[in-house]
């Protein structure tokens, strides 16, 4: 009887091992045959997600990254960035009871007041360029722009005024730098497809403003990887939709909810600490400890590396799953070479993480 039980036990063990082998082979074949990966690009508003998508088009669709209709759309947005950004600065100056030079007040009354604050032009706005330059140079406008983050004044505004003669030329066609600098809110969900190293990547860029986040749930099924973008430069920046809220704090709260969500227990998570170029300059004028949410920072005020490491640790500390590895990259979305190198690492991570499914 004992022999019979032993034989039955050994047979059962053999079957179990065979089942595991077959299961592993099926998984391996599935991953080998799998050619498409679904990626969510998430982050709070103004984190730079859309710029990353534009850079990917430049890198992987190098012959023709943008269609003519897209270029014309970006030109329209650039006019909007320039005039709407200037209006934000003007309103901020008035809110601070700052006076503008009389000739600049006259220019606003005579020309700018005729343009809606949320205008939509396909050609340059009908205002004298010299008047725009004088208004931009006004001491009060420059004063509020120095604290652009506190007033939610667009970071790219100085770029447009540095290039005003070119941008306002009637036959102006945006170049790649202009398109990368151009800013527009991500509304809804946009899908972008890239073929990289024999694999297809479906990347979904989801609007980061609070009003857009309720739509995220529809993207969750079948997600391979999440790339979560946080603007390093947002540590002292107000939210555009809520000037009383800190943009970095908003990003951390959002990351917490995504990182620890039941939807993404087995989803690989990559963090881009973005806008490092702006952060390096910004930290010299506004140390972390001067911001309420980050006043426990213990490093030197102007130490860029220590400040960045502190923010990185704030992000990583939110992960409640010790078995979940979070990959962090420091990025400058406008630097094509920098992002190109990082994207190579990202695709390697995606493939590696999916192969790790074999161990589960």
Automatic annotation (TrEMBL):
Cellular compartments per GO CC: cytoplasm; heterotrimeric G-protein complex
Residues the record lists as binding GTP: 46-51, 205-209, 274-277, 333
InterPro entries for the chain: Gprotein_alpha_su, GproteinA_insert, P-loop_NTPase
Pfam family, one: G-alpha
Domain of life: Eukaryota
MF term (GO), any: G-protein beta/gamma-subunit complex binding
Gene3D superfamilies per record: GI Alpha 1, domain 2-like (1.10.400.10), P-loop containing nucleotide triphosphate hydrolases (3.40.50.300)
Protein name, UniProt field: Putative heterotrimeric G-protein GTPase
